[in-house]
Write a structure and sequence with these properties.
Elements lengths: L10 H4 L2 H10 L10 H27 L1 H8 L3 H8 L5 H16 L2 H18 L6 H8 L2 H5 L2 H12 L2 H33 L5 E3 L2 E3 L3 H8 L1 H9 L23 H8 L2 H9 L1 H33 L3 H31 L5 H19 L6 H29 L5 H31 L5 H38 L1
Antiparallel strand pairs: 1-2
Helix pairs in contact: 3-7, 3-10, 3-11, 3-13, 3-16, 5-20, 6-10, 6-20, 7-10, 7-12, 7-13, 10-20, 11-17, 15-20, 16-20, 16-21, 17-18, 17-19, 18-19, 18-21, 20-21
Length: about 475
């Protein structure tokens, strides 16, 4: 499922251009200087590569879940902790401050450093010897990537003029699509290839066959980090209508508060009727979406008896179809909504949330693996279609001077609560359901509780968001 702002989707946003044109004319984007069209698209290309590797790693790690459980002797709760909370412990403390780097330093350096850290830490997972070491290797992953989305969104918003920004966001979505579709296909083949490898002993370390996969996929991150150094940094374009501006000076304590997101939190609280329902709905949906994403491969193994190679081949193809359909269906639907409603972003997100709720509940009870994967891919379609409106809604109303941190806080809700999803599903599986082959019951239970509430939160945000859009348009006029 792709609900959430993991990536700023885009073709879906193309339909919103008609509705946004009045606002863009009221708030004209200053003329760009020093950034050619070619340089802007090169930056977008490198960001797409980095996004691809991020999601490729996530999908591949999920496919390795059952083997990790067996080889390290883990319970479902421990496996869920390793996949989720272990990767965001560090992010909890440094995620928002690191995102501030995207607001005050050249974003290409922030992006380069983050990608390098992710690649190195992923590779270190290939030499871990026990559960504790594995947790240690995953604990810094989310911290390394905490500034990726805020820095990417901010850089693209300044590199592309408003009329082309939605197109850039659309192309950016292909990083997500590529990672989530090639991840199962390539990952399944790699797991099948290494399943017969005997353990390798290097300098006293025992490296299992599947651990070489982690080592291999970590290395490209270092190359992408170097590519970011070739990106042209666009000038920052401050918007005149920003309601809140962070102080340029002040005491050391005051500057620390700004750096840690204090002013961004104040701006969010000031518009809490708009932001809070969006944040809460996103957090609840992220728990289920991340949990389903990680546990779907173990579910297919336990319930339908498939191996990783078969799962990867079928799931990757279906997700690709669902993702591409999501871009088309979402774009047409949001375009239609934008002609009738100023709140098209949030209204569309609420509708797609409801559709994902239905498919998430139905997928585990399908009579065979093919139908289960088909229903899951339909959910992916609705998730892709709904991801852009959520991102667009935040970018539309966030103060420009602290856009990076407002986006980071929004993404924090998705990342932090999403990372607990695999752990929560594991806990429910161990302590509520209790039977390994009945993982499908856990998936239905969590979806039935979390997603309807998330949908209601998005519905609750429609009116406040529409009023804020109207206020911004009137202020510009």
């Amino acid at each position: 499922m792709a609900i959430g702002p993991a990536v700023a989707t885009a073709d879906v946003m193309a339909g919103e251009e008609a509705a946004e044109r009045a606002s863009l004319e009221a708030h004209p984007h200053p003329a760009r200087s020093g950034v050619s069209t070619g340089a802007a698209y090169w930056a977008l290309f490198v960001i797409i590569l980095a996004t691809f590797m991020t999601f490729f790693d996530q999908v591949l790690f999920g496919m390795l879940g059952q083997r990790i459980k067996i080889d390290f002797g883990l319970t479902d709760a421990e496996l869920g902790f390793l996949a989720g909370p272990a990767s965001i412990i560090c992010y909890l403390f440094v995620g928002i401050p690191l995102a501030r780097l995207a607001d005050i330093y050249p974003r290409k350096y922030v992006l380069s450093g983050g990608v390098a850290v992710i690649g190195l830490i992923t590779a270190l997972g290939g030499i871990t010897q026990n559960f504790v070491q594995f947790v240690g290797s995953r604990v810094f992953l989310a911290a390394g990537g905490s500034a990726h989305a805020p820095a990417s969104y901010s850089l693209l918003a300044d590199a592309f003029p408003p009329k082309k920004l939605t197109r850039a966001f659309a192309l950016l979505q292909f990083g997500f699509i590529g990672g989530t579709t090639l991840g199962p296909i390539i990952g399944g083949q790699l797991i099948g290839m290494t399943s017969t490898w005997e353990p390798t002993y290097v300098g006293g370390l025992r490296i299992l066959g599947w651990q070489w996969i982690l080592i291999g996929i970590g290395l490209p991150g270092l190359l992408i980090a170097l590519l970011f150094l070739t990106v042209t940094e666009p000038p920052r374009l401050a918007a005149a209508e920003d309601a809140v501006q962070p102080p340029a000076g002040g005491s050391l304590g005051r500057r620390i508060l700004v750096f840690t997101g204090f002013d961004a939190a104040k701006a969010i609280h000031a518009k809490r009727q708009v932001y809070y329902p969006l944040f809460i709905g996103l957090a609840l949906s992220a728990i289920q979406v991340f949990g389903l994403q990680f546990w779907f491969v173990p579910f297919m193994i336990r319930t339908h008896g498939w191996d990783e190679a078969k799962i990867g081949a079928v799931m990757g193809s279906m997700i690709l179809v669902g993702s591409l359909l999501g871009l088309g269906v979402g774009g047409i639907f949001v375009e239609w909504l934008a002609k009738h409603y100023k709140d098209a972003n949030v209204r569309a997100a609420a509708i797609f949330f409801a559709c994902v709720t239905v498919t998430s509940i139905l997928s585990p009870v399908m009579p065979n693996g093919y139908l289960s994967l088909a229903m899951m891919s339909i959910g992916v379609m609705f998730g892709i279609a709904g991801a852009v409106p959520q991102n667009a809604a935040i970018q539309r109303v966030a103060p420009n001077a602290m856009r990076g941190q407002v986006t980071a806080i929004y993404l924090f809700m998705f990342t932090f609560f999403g990372a607990t999803g695999s752990f929560i599903v594991g806990l429910v599986q161990d302590y509520v359901i209790g039977v390994e082959k009945d993982l499908w019951k856990t998936m239905i239970l969590t979806a039935s509780v979390l997603l309807p509430i998330a949908t209601l939160c998005m519905v609750r945000a429609i009116r406040p968001y529409r009023e804020e859009v109207e206020r911004l348009e009137n202020a510009g006029a």
